[in-house]
Amino acid sequence: MGKVIAVFNQKGGVGKTTTNVNLSACIAENGKKVCVIDIDPQGNTTSGLGVDKNILEYTIYDIIIEEANIKEAIVATEYENLHLIPSSVQLAGAEIELTGMKNREIKLKQAIDEIKNDYDYIFIDCPPSLGLLTINSLAAVDSVLIPIQCEYYALEGVSQLMNTIQLVKKNLNPNLEVQGVVLSMFDGRTNLSIQVVDEVKNYFKGKVYTTIIPRNVRLAEAPSFGQPIIYYDKKSKGAEAYAELAEEFLYLEEDVI
Ligand SMILES: Nc1ncnc2c1ncn2[C@@H]1O[C@H](COP(=O)(O)OP(=O)(O)OP(=O)(O)O)[C@@H](O)[C@H]1O
Ligand SMILES: [Mg+2]
Question: What ipTM was estimated for this complex?
Answer without folding.
Answer: 0.99
